[in-house]
């Protein structure tokens, strides 16, 4: 798919899945603009692909207004930017339990709110949930509910914003920057459990999620859908 002449914006593009989507979009000819909270990460990622960047925090609407206010036009928006705490109802503080909703649900909601005036008439948006939405991997009810809420948000926005297309990508467990930042024992236990539980008996790669996102950018008759690059996890 060619993205020549298109402006792709990725909030959370300085690492992980967002960075991989940035690489793919740039390779397909897009101009890529990255957002996130850490200048060094954004400068490194943008430098690698010849893109541009600006600091933004999706939990701060003034920051989102400044970020999108500096852009002329957006053809495709991808919003993997989120950081949160996951855990059981019995153990998490109320603020940790709310953190997925604060950054992953409301962060994406407000990013869409602020991008709307800049969207091209045939633009698309890809939100991020997670396969935990349909198959909870363990005791993490607020995180599970947040992912399900993001999928509902995608359907609701698809109706309101049509003909702008809005879709959701729901990854399974992905071997990449997010898990590399967690303790090795936690990572290995989670990867082992996921590999036993999923149809393809392995965790995923960031590039495999990027494949799904690029597909949703280009699939001009797909809107309101959720795509699960999860190795079949949801079925077992
Ligand atoms: N990796 C997996 O196994 C997996 C599975 C299911 C779902 N997901 C979802 O995929 C998304 C991306 O995850 P990832 O694996 O790519 O992890 P990641 O490497 O941690 O990427 C998250 C990015 O978002 C940025 N970010 C965090 N909070 C932000 C905020 N408030 N405003 C703007 N940017 C923010 C981070 O940079 P700064 O800290 O510098 O801002 C970082 O670059 C997340 O929503 C995650 O829940 C991942």
Instruction: Please count the beta strands (DSSP E, at least 2 residues each).
Output: 9
In the sheet with the most strands, the strands line up as 3-2-1-4-5-6-9
Q: Indicate the CATH class.
A: Alpha Beta
Q: Give the number of domains.
A: 1
Which shape, going by the Cα principal axes?
globular
Beta-strand fraction estimate: 15-25%
Average pLDDT works out at: 98
What is the share of helical residues?
Answer: 40-55%
Which hetero ligands occur in this complex? NADP nicotinamide-adenine-dinucleotide phosphate
Q: Determine the N-to-C terminus distance.
A: 33 Å
Write the CATH fold name: Rossmann fold
Rg over C-alpha atoms, rounded to the nearest angstrom:
17 Å
Q: Give a quick account of the main beta sheet: strands, pairing sense, barrel closure.
A: 7 strands, parallel
Going by CATH, what is the homologous superfamily? NAD(P)-binding Rossmann-like Domain
Task: Kindly list the characteristics that best describe this protein.
236 residues; alpha/beta; Rossmann fold; seven-stranded parallel sheet; two-stranded parallel ribbon; 9 strands; globular; binds NADP nicotinamide-adenine-dinucleotide phosphate
What does this molecule look like?
This protein has 236 residues and is an alpha/beta fold. It has one domain (7-173, 205-235): NAD(P)-binding Rossmann-like Domain (Rossmann fold, 3-Layer(aba) Sandwich), CATH 3.40.50.720. It contains eight helices and nine strands. The chain starts with 6 loop residues before the first strand and ends in a 9-residue tail after the last strand. The chain is globular, with a radius of gyration of 17 Å. The protein has a seven-stranded parallel sheet with strand order 3-2-1-4-5-6-9, with helices on both faces. Strands 7-8 form a two-stranded parallel ribbon. Helix 1 (16-27) crosses helix 8 (206-218), helix 3 packs parallel to helix 4 and helix 4 packs parallel to helix 5 (141-161). Bound molecules: NADP nicotinamide-adenine-dinucleotide phosphate. NADP nicotinamide-adenine-dinucleotide phosphate binds at residues 11-12, 14-18, 36-38, 41, 56-59, 80-83, 103-104, 107, 128, 130, 171, 173-174, 176-179. Residues 11-12, 14-18, 36-38, 41, 56-59, 80-83, 103-104, 107, 128, 130, 171, 173-174, 176-179 line the site of NADP nicotinamide-adenine-dinucleotide phosphate.
């Amino acid at each position: 798919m060619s993205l020549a002449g298109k402006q792709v914006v990725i909030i959370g593009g300085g690492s992980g899945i967002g960075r991989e989507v940035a690489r793919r979009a740039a390779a397909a000819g897009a101009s890529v603009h990255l957002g996130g909270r850490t200048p060094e990460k954004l400068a490194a990622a943008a430098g690698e692909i010849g893109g541009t960047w600006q600091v933004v925090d999706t939990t701060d609407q003034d920051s989102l207004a400044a970020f999108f206010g500096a852009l002329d036009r957006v053809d495709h928006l991808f919003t993997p930017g989120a950081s949160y705490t996951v855990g059981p109802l019995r153990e998490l503080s109320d603020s940790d339990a709310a953190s997925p909703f604060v950054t992953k649900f409301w962060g994406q909601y407000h990013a869409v709110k602020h991008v709307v005036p800049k969207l091209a008439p045939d633009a698309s948006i890809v939100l991020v949930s997670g396969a935990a939405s349909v198959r909870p991997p363990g005791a993490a009810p607020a995180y599970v509910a947040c992912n399900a809420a993001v999928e509902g948000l995608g359907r609701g926005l698809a109706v309101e914003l049509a003909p702008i297309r809005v879709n959701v990508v729901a990854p399974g467990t992905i071997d990449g920057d997010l898990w590399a930042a967690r303790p090795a024992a936690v990572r290995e236990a989670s990867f082992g459990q996921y590999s036993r539980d999923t149809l393809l008996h392995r965790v995923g790669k960031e590039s495999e999620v990027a494949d799904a996102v690029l597909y949703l950018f280009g699939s001009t008759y797909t809107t309101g859908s959720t795509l699960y690059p999860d190795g079949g996890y949801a079925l077992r």
